[in-house]
Each structure stands twice: as C-alpha cells, then as structure tokens.
Amino acid sequence: MSTAALTDLLPCETDSPEATHALGRRLAERLRPGDVVALYGDLGAGKTQLVKGIAAGLGIPDVEVSSPTFTLVHEYRDGRLPLYHFDAYRLRNLEEFFDLGYEEYFYGDGVSVVEWADRVEPLLPPHALRLRLEHLGGDRRRITWHEAPPSPDGRQARL
Ligand code: ADP
Ligand code: MG
C-alpha cells in the first residue's frame, strides 16, 4: 500500500474500542493483496480490536476473530481478501516463524496483520505498514504509523 493513501486516517486518536474498530474497517478498504500490517503496542493497547475492525472491513464476521495467542496465526478466507492474523507474543525465536512458513503468508495474495511485530522485526518485508498503538489513559489510544520500527520513546520520525 502506498503510505500516501493513509494520511487522512493516520495518525489519529480514538476514545473507545468501537472507534478503533471503525479505524480498522476504514484501513481495510485500502488494503491490497500482499499487504503486511505490523502492529506494535503494549498488552491492551487495542491491537486485536484494530484487527477485528480490519476483518470486518474485509467482510469477515466479527465473531470469528480472536487473538491467535496459542496458534501463532489464524486464517480467514471468507472476506474480500484472505486475512492472516498473527500474534507473535509467545514466539520463542524466529525459527518458529520460519517453520510456520511465514513467507507464504507475507508474500501471498492475502493481507497479513501481525500483533507484537517487534518480535519478528527482521522478517518483516520492506513494504510492511507499521502501526503503533499507545495508551493515553482511560479509553484513549493514539495510533501512529512509522517508516522504521517505532521506538519506545516515541521520538521516531513519522511518515
Ligand atoms: P491488544 O491486542 O493490544 O492486547 P486488545 O484489542 O485485545 O489489545 O484489548 C484492548 C482493550 O482495551 C479491550 O478490552 C478494549 O475494550 C479496551 N479499549 C478501551 N479503549 C479502547 C480504544 N480506544 N481502542 C481499543 N481498545 C480499547
Ligand atoms: Mg492482542
């Protein structure tokens, strides 16, 4: 995806889970086969909520989507594009990701979305869309996009 295609959506702040879901739905409209969305942010930042919105935007029923904490990847094939939802939280090493056959997903015809993308940083393709979600207190979250891996201090230049 051309990053210029997102300037009307990001960066942004949301004030509810529903607003983050809505952002995901709007992002989904812009996604193309082979796109990789890399999500960064702490536990509870809203990564899965955003993925649910992306899934809904692709036409995948919301009830189906949960965090693939124990399986590394969930595949959803009943939307406009296949969606490959990764959660690298419990990944022990990059080899596990190789063994999963990640290249088939990242360089395939679907959309890959990766929670805890920092765990697989070396394997992310150059065209990955990097989004960072941050708690701002209460239900507020800030969502930003980054050219390089977002640093914890947030000083990284934005696109
Ligand atoms: P993560 O996958 O990053 O660990 P989840 O999406 O699973 O996070 O959980 C986010 C939690 O925060 C949910 O319980 C959700 O209801 C809550 N929440 C509150 N405000 C927001 C918001 N603005 N955006 C996303 N989630 C929010
Ligand atoms: Mg999650």
Structure, described:
By secondary structure, the protein is α/β, with parallel strands linked by helices. The chain is built from four helices and seven strands, in the order E-H-E-H-E-E-H-H-E-E-E. The protein has a seven-stranded mixed β-sheet with strand order 1-7-6-2-5-4-3. Strand 6 (129-135) and strand 7 (141-146) form a beta hairpin. Helix 1 (17-30) crosses helix 2 (47-57). It is globular and about 40 Å long. The two termini are 14 Å apart. The structure holds adenosine-5'-diphosphate and magnesium ion.
Average pLDDT level: 91
Measured as a percent range, the helix fraction is 10-25%
How many angstroms does the end-to-end distance come to? Answer: 14 Å
Structural class label = alpha/beta
Q: Please list the strands of the largest sheet in the order they lie side by side.
A: 1-7-6-2-5-4-3
Could you tell me the number of beta strands?
7
Uncertain spans: none
Beta-strand residue fraction = 15-25%
User: Number of helix segments?
Assistant: 4
Shape: globular
Radius of gyration: 14 Å
Cofactors and ligands: adenosine-5'-diphosphate, magnesium ion
| Main sheet attributes: strand count, strand direction, barrel closure | 7 strands, mixed
